[in-house]
Amino acid sequence: MTDDYLRLNRANWDERAPVHAASRDYAVQRFLTEPDFLSEVVRFDRPLLGDIDGLRGVHLQCHIGTDTLSLARLGATMTGLDFSPASLAQARLLAEKAGAGIDFVESNVYDAVSALGGAQFDLVYTGIGALCWLPSIERWARTVAGLLRPGGQLFIRDSHPMLCTIDETHTERLVVGYPYFETPEPMVFSDGGTYVETDAEFVQTTTHEWNHGFGEIVTALLRAGLSITGLTEHRSVPWEALPGKMTRGEGDEWHLTEHPERLPLSFTVQARKPPGAS
């Protein structure tokens, strides 16, 4: 596979980064005026994430760093990693203004182990909307294992692969229109919008994306030598993934307006690298 997906997706995220940083949805100003403010994503994660005070963590695909900063405010020593230099520019500016000592590293996820100098972490964190940008879930799982010290833990919450199969252009019913399982070739989209409220008009609109089945994700982590310690499916997701069919609830989480029991919208997987593992 060529690296066209990296070039196209990076251009897409570079263009959106300053728009996201200026939007109300990311609440950058609240981070600067409220020293204990946390992102809605990390607030949702806290009950399962538990106490991370004193841990050394890395946030993969950190975008503009609001979740990274939130984890640092919970006591972790954080590093953020992303392939978009424009996103990292916003992340560094936010951390500097907030007085947080966070290192941000520019790298493709698959090169994270070398980009971080072989460092190993107590916590690898991945937030919502990340895995769809990666062509191989097996390579991702091996990367996670390489970043964890023995006894270290992975925490990921992401869009549920079943949600990712639903064709959002059908507003009258749920229609499976996209692959559930990982495919060799990407799904190619051209979307001039973004998931925050904005009047901005974008030029870099083409993206390459992949879905990864739940079984593929879990199996990849097991093959990488990790032990699954938690697996939860949620009935909500932090954006209006299916316009016209969702209602916003607590914590800016969206759920299906009708029959929310019919479709999982996000999931959390927790895994640990066994003590003594190389």
Automatic annotation (TrEMBL):
Which GO molecular-function terms appear in the entry? methyltransferase activity
Write down the Gene3D superfamilies for this protein, in alphabetical order. Answer: Vaccinia Virus protein VP39
Keywords, alphabetical: Methyltransferase, Transferase
Q: In its UniProt entry, what is this protein called? A: Methyltransferase domain-containing protein
Top-level taxon of the source organism = Bacteria
| GO annotation, biological process | methylation
Domain Methyltransferase type residues, every copy: 59-154
PANTHER family according to UniProt: METHYLTRANSFERASE, METHYLTRANSFERASE DOMAIN-CONTAINING PROTEIN
Which CDD domains does the record associate with it? AdoMet_MTases
Record keyword Glycoprotein present: no
The organism is Nocardia colli
